[in-house]
Design brief:
Elements (H helix, E strand, L loop, with lengths): L5 H12 L14 H6 L6 H32 L2 H13 L4 H21 L3 H11 L7 H11 L4 H23 L4 H12 L2 H9 L11 H12 L8
Helix pairs in contact: 3-4, 3-7, 3-8, 3-9, 3-10, 4-7, 5-6, 5-7, 8-9
Amino acid sequence: MPIFDRTTTLMQLLALTDSAFPVGTFSFSNGLETAADTGLVHDATTLEAYAREIARQAAFTDGVAALHAARSYRREDFDGLLGADRQAILCKMNAEARQMTCRMGKKLAELYARIADDATVTRWLDAIDRGRTPGTYPAAQGIVFAASGIDERELFCSHQYGAINTVLNAALRCVRVSHYDTQRIFFRLSAEIDALYAEAAAMDYDDMNAFAPQIDILASLHEKGTKRLFMN
């Protein structure tokens, strides 16, 4: 495994976490349009509650899968990578979420294969093309971040950053909040990430939980709804 200096690793972490990194994260909002349309999210207080629940649900599903994928990569356990990928897709209750995670996961792996020479990434892409594995985004994150020498705490932070900001960035377009509100919410939620990481890092697949019925109902409505902010 290549050895990275700290500056290189930090630069790659920033690039992979940036919403401008072209894997499509900017196109999704975790169903916020429907939450706003139904009145569930209508101000900074309700937005913070919604974003917190999204972060927690993501931490104990995709976050766990990403951590296990990274550990499997470091052990050179390819079957472990496939297992993490399968567990991630099983936690997606609606078709749109499954489509989103697979599109973004494959795109992340394809991009990394273009900019870095990594045999495991190439093998994983082949498994996706052959239908052996769904190719979810958290599994791709685990593989790519481990291949870049990024440790799992930083991987988890990047994962949480993405989950929270898909909601907050969308909120600026459909909820009566300002940039000050969204940044204040982000900083408050950031203070909770260390505790989420400690819990998620100790979880095995049997401990993963996606129980957030209100969000799942909103996601099902969003899937068939007409309220859209982005061209997917």
